[in-house]
Amino acid sequence: MAINKITLGELTITVDRKAIKNIHLSVYPPDGRVHISAPERFTLDALRVYAIGRLPWIERQRQELISQPRDTPRQYISRETHWWAGQRYLLDVQEQQGARPQVQSKLKELCMTVPPSYTREQRQTLLYNFYREDLKARVPALIAKYESQMGVSVAEFRVRKMRTKWGSCNIEASRIWLNVELARKPPECLEYLVVHEMVHLLERTHSRRFRSLMDKFFPGWPAVRKLLNELPVAHVDWAY
Which InterPro entries does this entry report, sorted A to Z (predicted)? Predict the structure, then answer.
């Protein structure tokens, strides 16, 4: 698969053409790198015209990424602060020989038990596994709540790290993907994302009808979306 480039002034856009149906335009953190994946039938000239038409959106996305506050790199040691469900928690790391690695919540602390040999990367993985399990516990009730209201059925949901999106929906499979980072955000942000992806089962695009459905099922959603996008994001470290 060959990677090509389109240059628009000072902006360079990488392009790959492959066996897909639609054009996908992505802006990646942390510095707003832009990439287009397109069906093989599109020429570079055609994709250049497409990119020019999307420049205002590209610039907005790049500016949001560049200006968004970011957490400082974490070392996963005691007395360090970490976000969970929209609240700051102190991390309490207990090193115990032969201990079963785990994270538990206690009042305003996240208690991490690890063997002394555990590295920073292993502690990071452990915490994000805790986040994943937290989402897996909270999301089913939200899905059930809105399935009955919307008259749709979600076949399954999955949690993973996602670099450019908070969530996505595979409409054909009725499958929802959620970004593991949502475990760190306020509960209303998680609920907003679940509703957003479920509405895609009724309306594929972000059309006027989509926005109307969001107004119906989750009034006030623009304010929650704004909150989500203004909160600090994790330091860019994709080890977990």
Answer: UTP_pyrophosphatase-like (IPR053136), YgjP-like_metallopeptidase (IPR002725)
The torsion angles phi and psi of 71, rounded to 5 degrees, stand at -65, 150
Residue 236 predicted with pLDDT over 70 = no
Tokens of 23: 């054009």
Which single residue is written with the structure tokens 């360079």? 12
> What are the residue boundaries of the structural domains of the chain, listed by start?
3-67, 81-230
First to last CA, the chain: 27
Pairing of strands 156-160, 175-179: parallel
Cα(138)–Cα(5) distance, integer angstroms: 42
Q: Are the CB atoms for 5 and 14 separated by under 8 Å? A: yes
Tokens representing residue 3 in the block: 């990677």
pTM of the model: 0.73
Which range, 53-57, 74-78, 153-157, 228-232, has the best average confidence (pLDDT)? 153-157
Kind of pairing, strands 102-106 and 81-84?
unpaired
Tokens of 4: 């090509």
pLDDT of residue 19: 86
H or E stretch covering 156: strand 156-160
Task: Tell me, rounded to whole angstroms, the distance of Cα 101 from its chain centroid.
Answer: 26
**In which residue are the tokens 């209201």 written?**
149
Q: Which fold has domain 81-230?
A: Zincin-like (3.30.2010)
What single-letter amino acid sits at 67?
S
User: What is the C-alpha to C-alpha distance for residues 108 and 63, in angstroms, rounded to an integer?
Assistant: 34
Check: CB of residue 175 under 8 Å from CB of residue 158: yes
Q: Give the per-residue pLDDT at 118.
A: 95
